[in-house]
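In response to reviewer comment 3 from the previous cycle, which asked for concrete evidence that the modeling workflow produces usable outputs, we include below a single protein chain processed end to end. The sequence was submitted unchanged, and the resulting structure tokens are shown without manual editing.
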Amino acid sequence: MKQSIEYELKELEGLNTIDLVAKKLNIKKSTAIKKIWELRKLGYVETSGGGKKPRLYRVGRKIPKVGNPGLYEVVNQNSPIKLVKPYEHRIIDKKLTIEEAIIRAIKSEEFRLILASLALFKKVENWPRLYRFAKAENVRRKVGALYDVARRIVKTRRMDKKTRRLLLNAKNEKRYIIRGLKSKNFQSIEKSWNVCIPFNMADLMRYKE
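The workflow returned the following structure tokens.
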């Protein structure tokens, strides 16, 4: 007997894996994959995860979105490392720029969010604007250090010399991007910027998955 969309939405509301979809609807895994595809086409499913992380499907009723994409959505739109949104975040009255998104990610002190946001450096269009945001939040050296790390794994636009000099000359900033985490592979960058990088090269390999 064919199940109605209303029934399926009720049973699947929230986060699911393909196996969980199959179990909830009492269908085969191959059928569950087709069902998720159908619901996503109708706008009821958001996908996240992948690689070494399990792929997750957030199922819910279509709700008109107000405002502009928030931090997690901007990162997911521009990074191969996908994030599970802990909540729905929209920005009213303005659009979150790539430059501001980088700063917000750094300020979050969340490992996976900062790692995923490294990809945003390839989309930076206004280096002076990035500097202004970094100065306002007192994270100038962190921005410079993470930019150098990002260049190891993604093709970035070249930062102009003036912005780099201003970032490097910043004083009275905290060393740790994430408290207690230091790198075993990026010590030269840590030394140049007097910043502790929370990633090792193995973490950056997630960009290759």
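The chain has a mean pLDDT of 90. We consider this sufficient to address the reviewer's concern, and the full set will be provided in the supplementary archive.
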